Sequence to fold (295 residues):
Amino acid sequence: MFDNLSDKLDKAFHILKGHGKITEVNVAETLKEVRRALLDADVNFKIAKDFTTKVKEKAIGQDVLTTLQPGQLLVKLVKDELTELMGGEVAGINLSGNPTVILMAGLQGSGKTTFSGKLANYLLTKKNKKPLLVACDIYRPAAIQQLYVVGDSIGVEVYSEPENKNPVEIAQNAIKHAKANGFNVVIVDTAGRLAVDAEMMDEIERVHKAIQPQETLFVVDAMTGQDAVNTAKTFNERLNFDGVILTKLDGDTRGGAAISIKSVVNKPIKFVGTGEKMDAIDVFYPIRMAERILG
Ligand code: GDP
Fold:
């Protein structure tokens, strides 16, 4: 994961490790390399610039050059800042509703259906919940079918109304069904499009308003880099979502989305998807991710 970024950061810190006496110039060069590494990882320019400015201020504030191991201290400052950038604390999921309603939003292909299954499986096996999966895609029968395959594989019931073309009604009926049958979490998988369009946004907004979910989760493919961040912005403006799910972190992603999405939308990454299987889900820990990036 993020091998390229890790390699480049490692090289950046070599500048410091190679010198007997470390000067201000060495530190400035290192931070320039750090910034370049972030930009190469598809982190937005302003975020990368602010990042190195903050680290530099801290380095000056802590008199890095006068410490015994300035290189190590600088690595620590970078790690702390990366952790902060990705959200600081781990963000939990709000399961307070009865039933808890979770709305999944995102583009087609982002991994919504797969993640709905993973989350249901996680809540069933790790949190002792009884989840219901809801198929709210009224355009693609194959999407409903896919959710049944997912539900079957983890032993979770799927609710659908293939004849009904009103996603608001389907979602509302599903919640009634859940209440009547003892389900305490309802995960609503919605229709996505290949790109942001007005109809999709209107539809998800209507569903959102009607069912008032405890958690609205925006699912995005980490491999799409800056596009992921821009799509997040658009969805957040319409839905004011509660958290981000970054999928396909097992793929060849450069890391930009993971690093910058929190500071752009000011919403935490809650989970990551790391594969196609139902157990390939991880709670997102900013500090662990920063440690991983810095190797
Ligand atoms: P949806 O259109 O948003 O519902 O997306 P899907 O759930 O159908 O996922 C699209 C494709 O991405 C499928 O082939 C999934 O198997 C794959 N996929 C989803 N999540 C992950 C992940 O975390 N890692 C990998 N490698 N593939 C994933």
Summary: The two ends are 10 Å apart (CA to CA). The mean pLDDT is 93. The first helix runs from residue 3 to 17.
